[in-house]
Amino acid sequence: MDMNQAKIFILALLGTTLLLVSLLLVRSGSSEQVQGVVLSDTVTQSLDGERRYITVKLASDETLTLTAPIKIACREGESAYLIKKVTIFSHSAPWKLQRCALDEEQK
Fold this sequence. Notes:
Elements: H1 3-28, E1 30-46, E2 49-58, E3 63-68, E4 79-86, E5 95-101
């Protein structure tokens, strides 16, 4: 194999690898909605503003503490609706608070 063929082979290999990685990234992200019960809602003050932390207990008995938008206030006992983003590259899924609401049974 001369140098021209080696360069073409390496470029083709890199192009194929790039194409496969981009396809995996596009198809790997999936999300699911999960519901839990709010255990606590804490607002803290820092130098750059306020931060809200919500502690939620899921149906699987897993307890999560996650940051939430300061505008979404949750009361203890309310249902929290979370989005769980799953990718093939992360071992733990990032959680995002979607909303909090009182269920009909809790009113």
